[in-house]
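Example 3.2
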Amino acid sequence: MTEYRCTRCGFHRLEGDAASGHVPGEAATCTEPQLCTKCGAVIAKALGHDYTEETTPATCTEMGFTVFTCARCGDSYTGGYTDVAAHDYTEAVTAATCTEMGFTTFTCAQCGETHKGEYTKATGHKAGGWIIDKAATTTSEGSKHTECVNCGVVLETAVIEKIYNQATTDTHGEATVGGYLVTVTDTDTRNPVSGAAVALDKNNALSIRLPNSRLLDYNDQTTITVQLVKDKSAVADMAVAVTDKNDNSCAGKTDRAGKLTVPGSIGTTDSDGRATVGYEDADRDCFTLTVRVEHYETGRPIQGAGVAVGKTGNITVTLPKGVDMDEDHRITVTVTDQKKNPQEGVTVIVKSDLGGKETGETDTDGSLTVPAVEAEAQRHGVYIVGYGDGTFGPERNMTRSEAAAIFARLLAEKNGDTIPTAAVTKFSDIPAGAWYSGYVRYLNGYGVTYGRGRTTFAPNEAITRAEFTAMAVRFFDAYGDGDPEIMERYEGFTDVSDGYWAAQYIHDAAVNGWIVGYGDGSFRGGAAITRAEVVTIVNRLLGREADADYISGYPRRLNTFPDVPRRHWAYYAVMEAANGHTAAYDKSGGEVWSK
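Structure, written as tokens:
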């Protein structure tokens, strides 16, 4: 027989002896073995954990991770973290209307986060021609109105005088009105023009509407002859206005022979501000131009302006007496051919009765507005920089010290101040030699920065959306010069109560369109703000917008970042913030850069 003896308690048994002297304790677990309660000897080893894994993928705003859970004991821990995924924005463009700004809505296809940006100015109303609401008759007045060609809103209404005499030219091109025989013929062939509507008003002036088959054309002129019915004698100095289906318009007076040939090389604008003229160039080619003259600010037509065209096609517009032409009273001249096609590159000279003179060329829409108003060029310095590894970190949270540096640089640039690189502040957690100490002290002097406590600033903690908004509004008050044209309507945020500490700041910023909330109607004031969001808000606040043409043409002159490619939603906002430039402004108010 073999004898087995426990070295701790002395218990022994013989081989084949079924009796055991060990007294088992609690069963073995994942971390604890089973012991003998009598002597502490290990009866069974610890089992070890049996983990299962549950992975939560990264989102656009939250890191991904894996939860490991033991199937036996329920022990759990988190690990296997993965980086936050970048937003994948889609763009939906809402075009500007006559009265509302346009904008682009950026929506992340992954998480649904949404914000607005890339604002464009309201286009303003554009008046069309008169629309007849009620035709005048021989017994009653009529009415007419103009509408905006873009949105249809009524801009102006007017009364049409009742018709005193009216007739239509017959096959001989003749019509009799009020004792006058009016004959309409083709100037070159002398063939009669039938179907022209002829009216005589109370002021003894003739109005003639050509039939739809005929246009006012310098290459195919029309002659109007006015005679007395009783003896066929010529009627001189009679006012005649001729129009056609394309709203071309010629006005003048008959000569000694009672004749007026239209269009000529000179004319006078009618009640719609239009005058049609023509010329023959050195190659004997004929051209017809219809010129519309209107007030830029209101779009209202200017009647009685003289229009003349030279042999080179240059147009001279002489404004009627009493019509001002200055920066507060600008004049728009639009040139089309007789078929309403805009004429680009036409030289136009506009003269006023006080000796003013402005010259320019029509744009692609055939329009020229004078005098040209050029905004004073401004220097836009760099107000944000990247990191030492060359990246910008668009999705990284911005610290409170970084935000202070941005606003301090902008305010100091406007005021012409120099900020010391080191300064003593009232905050105990800002060392005097810290790179941001001078910025914080400078802003504190203007009441822009506040701490998170009486003596603490928390410079390295992420600034929240509410904190940044409050700082932005206080900065704007100190800066005193931003974009007054942002008119986005404030509709409120569902999670900003009247008692919230930053409620008034958020309200002020939202009213001016500097900030927008999320798609669910919330503002999330306690959430951290990203660097891309910051530069977008600051640019919007100051009315700054990058020059895309300059950026495309001179990429090597610019500070660029590998983590902000051209397709990134905030690319141009980052370029505006990270590159110093001199900004002039074009007609639409957009920036035109030069280094």
